Amino acid sequence: MIWLIALFAIVLLLAGFEMFLVLALPTLVAKEAFYGTLPDAVLVQKVIGGINHSTLLAIPFFIFAAHLMGAGRIAGQLTQLMRVFLGHTRGGMGHTTIGAAMAFGSVSGSAPATVAAMGRIVYPEMRKTGISERFGLGLVVASAETALLIPPSITLIIYGWITGTSIAQLFAGGLAVGLFLGLAFSVMVTIEARRRGLKGEDRRPLADRLTALWEAKWALGMPLIILGGIYSGLFTPTEAAAVSVMYAIFVEMIVFRDLNWSKLVEVTEDSAVATSIIFVLLAVGGLLSYFVTLAQIPNDITAFLETANAGPIAFLMVVNICFLIAGMVIDPNSALLILVPPLYPVAMAYGVDPVHFGMIVTLNICIGMITPPFGLDIFVASSTLDRPVLSIIAGVWPFVAVNIIVLLIVTYVPDISLFIPNLIFR
Amino acid sequence: MGFLTLLRRAERVFLVSVFLGMVALFALNVVGREIGGEFASRLTWIEEAVRLLNIFLVFGALGLALERGRHVGIDTLRRALPGRAQRRIEKTIDAVGLLASLYLAWLAFGLTQFVLQTGQRSPTLDVPMGWIYAAPIMGFSLLALRYALSLFGVIDRFSQSPGMGGSGQGAQK
What we know:
The structure holds two protein chains of two kinds. By secondary structure, chain A is mostly helical. Helix content of chain A is 81%, strand content 0%. In chain A, helix 6 packs antiparallel against helix 7. By secondary structure, chain B is mainly α. Chain B contains eight helices and no strands. Chains A and B meet through helix 1, helix 2, helix 3, helix 4 and helix 7 of A and helix 1, helix 3, helix 4, helix 5 and helix 6 of B.
């Protein structure tokens, strides 16, 4: 019976049903099949319970702030800032791309949004400095992933909500792992630049650097509010999110004057729709995880792994494989909602740190987003840069490989994830 | 002005005022806490109010998200099918979606009535708890309406979502 329900879900998924139906319909069937005596009211209660929590309020606020700040001149300013600091290195425009993606990620926290905003600016510049089409496309797509790790990250908030892990600690871990991933891509850029004999641009004078820094000051205010606010203890993550919306409205309406009232209405509505898309998944996810717990699936997994005599290392390998496959096929939020409830209790039983587990999960999702055939960022890059999907897929493979190596290192060296959280909190 | 135009305008007014209200209230809450004292303790209802508003925001936007083809789904395979098969699957999705959202709206309606009868009230706002469940009634009804409109060919929601989730995914996460 359970297999029939799983098969039903797969059919819905492949036919292209909305993801919330893919999660909800099999759950409703399972309820009728196994828990028919349970009152139907429970279903609605779980749906509301899945979204009625203050931790989750950070999500609509961060989405709103990113919609306000994400477009327009900020992407250009951050790219310019990175270019004057990194352009003179070997393969400088490649390093600039990575740095700009990470800086943009500290404002937006969305990998596809980062591809869309940065791609158009950095890709033509990379080509001008002699970076090949294949490598350039791969780099644009891959470096955008760091946005999922660098705070604010919706993925980490959702993980924190499902598992009850501190968002502030997850953000600290994400910062470290995001930097580590960026560094790995930088090494690739250097190797590629050496192979092709690329040089850097001329080193910029200090005055240029200071000018670029000054021009990007409003964009840089955002991470200052979010990270500074949270780690100084001034704000909770949710409060930091709300304050960053006020800040974004102030910057866009009063400083830049890019935003008038009717544009604000449009952006607000658009952010509401974007919020709804994520929360409807969280709502049916609440339903799903209720039945996962009722059916004692985590216990079954633990029992199975015990009889198979698997240690924590083998377990984490299983986690990596499950998430990689899920990330390749479905969207990151659904992957979290389906896989974290059954696997997290098992991870805890093996003594894995919650923050470390969160980093493993998020990195897996990152890889999924750039892995063919369904990786979302590939399609976003294809439409923003107007390049065929197949060219992007050709460029992305080496980055997927390096990403998997980074994942294995992060999985088996917990200190990378825990270094900053330990420094601040423990 | 047609019914749909009117509905879209109503949805827009609702969503924009709820969202901006949430931001204003929560920011006021932060300011209040910094000032502290009696002022802060008078603002304790804000957190709960914003949570409630968020629930209404989420369900209020469900229908619009569907109409604009923004809900997440994997349509790559379906799009690769020949036109006729594609249309057929799309109609099936619309029909199933319509039934599912009507069923969920009905469940929410039952729960609203039940909780209103118990007279349970929310902890700090002191409003009847049953009203929370009015949000899913509204949301799933708006969703059912869009599925029906798409099923009968009044709106075209399938032609505008490239890849998973379209710009909704693109804009965030």
